[in-house]
Write a structure and sequence with these properties.
This protein is mainly alpha-helical. The chain contains 4 helices and 4 strands. The strands form 2 sheets. The chain has a two-stranded antiparallel ribbon. It is globular, with a radius of gyration of 17 Å.
Length: 137
């Protein structure tokens, strides 16, 4: 069982079902509703006026994953979250992964993709695939 930590403090456990249980007191959002919330936030902040092409969204998603790689290259642990001194912006691998997911959610919102159903369908298909899908890694 993996332990998720924030600033070295245990904040949740990965249950056998694979879902994370955070003790934040906030009701869980479905992926569908989270996409809606992300899209509405980005609309309100003007991002949909400038990011309108699929290639732009893909580049932005890629840039977040590159930032995640840089966190590892800088010696940060996978679960480490730290805060920028100037404005307390959260930084680290978990934050860059979150940014990548948020960018994916925003793209799904803009282009009308039911990402929740797509994830479920793809996951069910992946369960039927052979070990390593016939690849070396």
């Amino acid at each position: 069982m993996a332990i998720i930590k924030k600033n070295g403090i245990e904040v949740s456990e990965i249950k056998e079902s694979g879902s994370a249980c955070y003790e934040c007191g906030k009701a869980d959002l479905s992926i569908f509703n989270f996409i809606k919330e992300v899209g509405e936030t980005n609309t309100a902040h003007g991002f949909h006026e400038v990011n309108t092409k699929p290639a732009e969204y893909i580049a932005l998603i890629h840039s977040e994953l590159s930032e995640c790689l840089e966190e590892f290259r800088s010696g940060h642990d996978a679960t480490e979250i730290y805060y920028r001194e100037s404005d307390q912006k959260p930084e680290g691998v978990p934050m860059e992964l979150a940014d990548a997911v948020i960018r994916c959610f925003d793209m799904a919102y803009v282009f009308g993709i039911d990402l929740e159903e797509a994830i479920k369908e793809k996951h069910e298909f992946n369960k039927t695939r052979p070990y390593l899908h016939g690849k070396q890694f």
